[in-house]
């Protein structure tokens, strides 16, 4: 019985004084028990007396398949394989794949919400991708906000290409950033970005009322000196870009120039998010171009998207993020990094199994 291997576990009882704290030594191994997917440990908290499975709070809790096989299914789907192809490759049923992917997607979003807090980000890029749900005449856009430097996907939102989509897309990252008032936003020419920028990234200011009666004047938004918004407006002719116009929609030019220098850009562009669009289309079976493999249900579309984004952030290395080692290890001269490592919320490349096995606090997934 090895108690040191229990150090990473935490009590999941919200009423327990040791709730959510790891390494207190309050957890004991109660017993091993057999399941169809192999032996599991039952843990007992000495502080509150509650017993729970070692997989409680993870995406693998109550999953009947062996955990390696479940992770293998997620790896297939996040390489752009359709559910039917994945079922054939992993020798499971198509509905099993669909069900597991939905569970994993919800869990992946919880992991993202838990880790993506107080992000040290100075500039973000936003863009939208086109896809379908249900039928070819039901478009479902996926809009993303990505950190220009680390390529970390901060926020995504799905739906019709309306103002509501832009609101969900821009207000989400605002709560995840450490200092949203010092961010430079690079976007395409979609007008909702322009009209929402002041409300999202600026401080509201209530003008004084003249006299003591009547309604208060409308809120005014003052753009801080440290923030800026650049629109890269492309003109298309026969699906080809014929003209690119760069417009500084919000001040200040000095802050924008400073950010371009820091990023190593000569002209403002949305290369990070455009590059991510290409990768995301290959990773998500519902976004592969010229295919009919789009999702039938909005819920499935959303969960696959969340799973793909979390795998991209935590599990996939990006060649552009590698750093040179001070001392070469054999023939290896570079250390590869994921976007989560580059932004500073992970210290190693996660496997898909680790992503699925991460217990979520304080609201355990599927509990
Ligand atoms: Zn407890």
Order of helices and strands: EEEHHHEEEEEHEHEEEEHHHEEHH
Unreliable parts: none
Side by side, the strands of the main sheet go 8-7-4-9-12-13
- Percent of residues in helices comes to 25-40%
Structural class category: alpha+beta
CATH architecture term of the domain at 119-204 and 220-284: 2-Layer Sandwich
CATH names the topology of the domain at 119-204 and 220-284 as: Nucleotidyltransferase, domain 5
Ligands and ions found: zinc ion
Describe the structure.
- By secondary structure, this protein is α+β, with helices and mostly antiparallel strands.
- Among the domains are: 54 residues, no CATH class; 151 residues, 2-Layer Sandwich (Nucleotidyltransferase, domain 5), CATH 3.30.420.
- Helices cover 32% and strands 26% of the residues.
- A 6-stranded mixed β-sheet has the order 8-7-4-9-12-13, sandwiched between helices. A 3-stranded antiparallel β-sheet has the order 1-2-3, with no helix packed on it. A two-stranded antiparallel sheet has the order 5-6.
- Strand 1 and strand 2 form a beta hairpin.
- The mean pLDDT is 87.
- Bound molecules: zinc ion.
- The site of zinc ion has 8 residues, from loops.
Short description:
With 367 residues, this protein is of the alpha+beta class.
Main attributes of the structure:
Nucleotidyltransferase, domain 5, 6-stranded mixed β-sheet, 367 residues, single chain, binds zinc ion, 3-stranded antiparallel β-sheet, globular
Topology summary:
Blueprint: E1 27-35, E2 38-45, E3 51-53, H1 67-77, H2 83-90, H3 94-115, E4 123-129, E5 132-133, E6 135-139, E7 141-147, E8 153-159, H4 163-176, E9 184-187, H5 191-201, E10 203-205, E11 220-222, E12 228-237, E13 240-250, H6 253-263, H7 271-283, H8 298-314, E14 318-329, E15 332-337, H9 339-343, H10 352-357
Parallel strand pairs: 4-9, 9-12
Antiparallel strand pairs: 1-2, 2-3, 4-7, 5-6, 7-8, 10-11, 12-13, 14-15
Helix pairs in contact: 1-2, 1-3, 2-3, 3-8, 4-5
């Amino acid at each position: 019985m090895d108690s040191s291997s229990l150090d990473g576990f935490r009590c999941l009882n919200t009423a327990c004084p040791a709730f959510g704290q790891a390494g207190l030594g309050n957890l004991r191994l109660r017993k091993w028990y057999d399941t169809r997917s192999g032996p599991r440990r039952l843990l007992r908290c000495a502080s509150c007396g509650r017993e729970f499975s070692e997989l409680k709070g993870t995406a693998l809790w109550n999953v009947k398949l062996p955990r390696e096989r479940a992770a293998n299914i997620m790896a297939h789907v996040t390489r752009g394989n359709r559910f039917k192809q994945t079922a054939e490759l992993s020798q499971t049923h198509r509905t099993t794949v669909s069900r597991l992917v939905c569970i994993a997607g919800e869990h992946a979003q919880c992991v993202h919400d838990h880790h993506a807090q107080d992000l040290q980000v100075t500039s973000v890029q936003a863009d939208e991708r086109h896809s379908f749900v249900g039928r070819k005449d039901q478009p479902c856009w996926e809009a993303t906000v990505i950190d220009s430097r680390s390529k970390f996907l901060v926020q995504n939102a799905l739906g019709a290409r309306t103002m509501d989509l832009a609101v969900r897309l821009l207000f989400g990252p605002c709560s995840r950033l450490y200092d949203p008032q010092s961010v430079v936003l690079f976007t395409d020419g979609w007008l909702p970005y322009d009209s929402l920028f002041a409300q999202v990234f600026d401080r509201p200011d209530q003008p004084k009322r003249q006299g003591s009666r009547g309604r208060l004047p409308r809120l005014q938004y003052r753009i801080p000196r440290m923030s800026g918004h650049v629109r890269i407006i492309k003109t298309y002719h026969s699906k080809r870009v014929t003209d690119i116009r760069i417009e500084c929609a919000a001040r200040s030019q000095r802050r924008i120039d400073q950010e371009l220098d820091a990023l190593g850009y000569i002209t403002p562009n949305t290369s990070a998010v455009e590059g991510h669009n290409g990768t995301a289309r290959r990773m998500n079976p519902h976004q592969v171009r010229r295919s009919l493999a789009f999702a039938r249900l909005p819920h499935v579309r959303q969960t696959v998207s969340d799973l793909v984004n979390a795998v991209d952030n935590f599990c996939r290395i990006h060649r552009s993020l590698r750093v040179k080692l001070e001392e070469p290890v054999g023939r290896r001269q570079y250390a590869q990094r994921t976007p989560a490592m580059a932004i500073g919320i992970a210290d190693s490349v996660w496997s898909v199994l680790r992503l699925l096995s991460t217990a979520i606090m304080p609201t355990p997934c599927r509990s």
